[in-house]
Design brief:
Layout: H1 2-8, H2 21-42, H3 44-50, H4 52-65, H5 73-88
Helix pairs in contact: 2-3, 2-4, 2-5, 3-4
Length: 89
Amino acid sequence: MSAFFDYVRGRSDELPAGYDERGMRLYRHLVWLGASQTIEAHHPDLREQLGEEAWRGLIEAWVRDSTWDSPFVNDLAEDFAAFLARTSA
């Protein structure tokens, strides 16, 4: 299961055994989209200030490098703030 999560979060580009590449790319996109929308709701000006390319890179880095594992949406925003504090220090 770890290979699945590593792929979906962008920690690995190695396709997990038994999974279809197209489906896994879709899972990865859906994780990114959900994270992006959640964070944009809490930081509406940040995406506009950064521009699309930098925004995508920031969200991808957060999804890949963060330690979030909570099913609660509000916890994502808290973890993102902690991620920003760690990466900008």
